[in-house]
Amino acid sequence: MGEPGARATNRGFGRVLVVIYAVFALAATARSAVQIATRFDEAPVAYTLSAVAAVIYIIATVALARGDRTSHRVATVAITIELVGVLAVGVLSLVLPSDFPRASVWSTFGSGYLFIPLVLPLVGLWWLRRTAGSVTPDD
Amino acid sequence: MTGLFATIIIVVSLALAAWCAVQLIANRPPGLPLWGALGVLELLLLAFLVGGVVQMVGDDRDFARLEFVLYLLGLAALLPLASWWVKDERSRAAAGVLLVVLLVVPVMVVRVQQVWAGTSG
Q1: pLDDT tens digits for range A33-81
Q2: Are A125 and A83 in contact (CB under 8 A)?
Q3: Contact B52, B59 (CB under 8 A)
Q4: Dihedral sign, CA of A124, A125, A127, A128?
Q5: By CB atoms within 10 Å of each CB, which of A93, A133, B75, B98 scores lowest?
């Protein structure tokens, strides 16, 4: 502690947060890649959103892990989209279940993943607020 | 997939997760004995990967082979990646990171078994 960037988004609790994001990035990427490669025709809307979710998780993971000022902004945007996405897909999967067979990490607010996809963006935004102003400048 | 070996991995993983939780609560980074135990778990996961692929090749049932191999590769990669991520972390956050991946391991092992049995969507 005490070195520059000690309270950047990738330090302390941030280390743990980045790993949780990385796990979801991997899970969502692998899952949507398999879905799109093997059975895209069955539910194109849900599978496309699956891929979008995967990309969002990847961007959030990398941005949180980098921890400089630009990354802080990128992470804020990505995680805000993530929150909107999980809420929108959660509602749509309940209202239009035929278009959303249990197929994406965000279906029914992430119930297939212990609702972690719903809680994660809230924790992420809280962490970004906490670390705001203390991140290291861009190189 | 062989039930006993998978069960051993799940039990070891959960035991190490509990160990990490103790370190986390005690505000300590993981020590050498914990790292050694993680090395043993990684050896088990590598054996799981090799054994799984061997069993898959010798089996002509129809199941999701791509997902099966991806899960096995993911399991083998999890601990090395997490270790690399916390190699410079001297706080209890390192124990927190390992706790997360040690809880992910059992979930993925269960998924591997589901894919093997062909009961997953």
Answers
A1: 888 888 888 778 878 888 999 999 999 999 999 989 899 999 999 999 9
A2: yes
A3: no
A4: positive
A5: A133
